[in-house]
Amino acid sequence: MMDVTSERRGSTVIINTAGRVDGSNASEFQDALEANIGAEDSAVILNLAELDYISSAGLRIILLSAKNLRQRDIGFSICSLSSSVHELFIISGFDQIIAIHSSPETALAAQEG
Amino acid sequence: MAEAQYKILVVDDEVDLQPLMLQRMRRDIRAGRYSFVFAHNGIEALEKLNEDDTIDMVLSDINMPQMDGLTLLEQIPTVDPNIKSVIVSAYGDMKNIRTAMNRGAFDFVTKPLDFADLRITIERTLAHLTEWRAALASRDQLVSLQKELDVANKMQKSILPTQFPRKDDYEVFAHMEPARDVGGDFYDVINLEHDRIGLCIADVSDKGVPAALFMMSSRTLLKGASIGCDNPGDVLREVNDLLRETNATEMFVTLLYGIFDPASGDFAYANGGHNEPLLIRPDGSSSLLPRTGGIILGVLAGMEFAHNTINVGPGDTLFLYTDGVSEAMNVETEEFGMERLAAIFAETPPDDAEETTMAVFKAVHTFAGETPQSDDITCLTLHRSESGS
């Protein structure tokens, strides 16, 4: 249902999440995010290109991660939202809290800029 | 005689109330459901609470000599934080009702007392109290996840109104079906001054007892903030700031709140990150209400919430729902979606709030078939009569 992988670009980690995140696997999603962030990472980009669906329980994990990373002074942004997921981010007002980019490249550029 | 099931402390400086209460509630007293203790001001009430730790609920007047009801409300938690209070106030005394709700009152009734109404309010408060105690017990002990979810589901049910306005010019109906292991939806219908009503639909981000407690806070804060406030955006701002103060776990709630004025048909609403309601015309065509922006509640303090006003014309229907409706899935993992929802209304233009609500549930169930329900499904329908007001 859900698959989390990561790749590194310098000191930035790009975490790709695919499938569905809902109440049944939200805590698994939280653990997977945490496991993919290394001690040396200065920024995290969450790539949701392959994400089919996210429920409010999943949004809460993203929010928790964003707050947690901010406290650790680690950058955080999201990229490549499908139109339905983007819609959800707009309705919930998440787009006002978290930086959203169209692709990993633009997210990386913003991270460096 | 055996101890009654629940003990209620009634606090009022009017001496006539005691015999009247005992007389009107005699059936419940005889059946062993309630017993009553009386006090005539706040100080006496606190003495009774200190002497007797079996009191479950306080029903208190506001204006009393020596110590008034609002001061008493502040003091009760120092004696026992788990006593639930209901405030009795003068009709239209919104300022005091608001203060009482903000100080943790569970509900209020207005004078002159209608004993049938009072009984419903007492029953609801006691039902809630029972679930509240079970929730606290399960939080304090290690209980199985399933047991915890059962407790949370019961708490959720205990705050949902089951009686709705059915007037000549409009009617309301709402229904919630909980998912087996994810809960968090709630709705409320709040009586406001000048015959207006406040409508709310909401979805808490998490499941289990912490989410149910967060839901309780949201519901009570909304009820307090909505009384005496004409701007739904200001109501959401207040609820958001108060939720933020007490929220350490980054839970949040999406909540849409609006005020309906039956005289004009106007519906003024503001949105904390919830999906927009649908306005359905008498011919069955429907459209989403314009977006007002607005972020989920409980996450960031100091946010502003814009509001918008639309007119619900004669024969129009307003349909509030949670994403459990639009995102219900069938065996092919397709979502129910907005088009199927609109098709229900197009096929049978709504003319009855209850029938319309239940038609949506039926369509969702038929669509989902054997697929287990993964989220709560909640609908709230307001239908304005063809003849208008």
Plain-language structure description:
The complex is a heterodimer of chains A (113) and B (389). Chain A has 113 residues and is an alpha/beta fold. Chain A is 41% helix and 31% strand. In chain A, helix 3 (83-92) links the parallel strand 5 (75-79) and strand 6. Chain B has helices at 17-24, 26-30, 42-51, 69-79, 94-102, 115-140, 145-159, 208-226, 232-246, 323-326, 337-347, 353-368, and strands spanning 6-11, 34-39, 57-61, 84-90, 107-111, 170-177, 185-191, 197-204, 253-261, 266-272, 278-280, 286-288, 307-311, 317-321, 377-384. Chain B starts with 5 loop residues before the first strand and ends in a 5-residue tail after the last strand. The A-B interface holds A 22-24, 53, 55-57, 59-60, 63-64, 67, 91-94, 96-97 and B 181-182, 184, 203-207, 250-252, 254, 272-276, 291, 293-296, 299-300, 323, 327, 374-375.
Question: What labels would you give this structure?
Answer:
heterodimer; A: 113 residues; alpha/beta; 6-stranded mixed beta sheet; 41% helix; 31% strand; globular; B: 389 residues; Rossmann fold; 2 domains; 5-stranded parallel beta sheet; 5-stranded antiparallel beta sheet; 12 helices
Named CATH architecture of the largest domain in chain B: 4-Layer Sandwich
Morphology call of chain B = globular
Q: Tell me the CATH superfamily of chain A.
A: STAS domain
Strand order of the largest sheet of chain B: 2-1-3-4-5
Instruction: Identify the overall geometry of chain A.
Output: globular
- Beta percentage of chain B is 15-25%
- How far is the first residue's CA from the last residue's CA of chain A? 35 Å
- CATH C-level label of the largest domain in chain B: Alpha Beta
Which structural class is indicated by helix and strand composition of chain A? alpha/beta
Distance between the first and last residues' Cα of chain B: 53 Å
- Count up the helices of chain A: 4
CATH architecture name of chain A: 2-Layer Sandwich
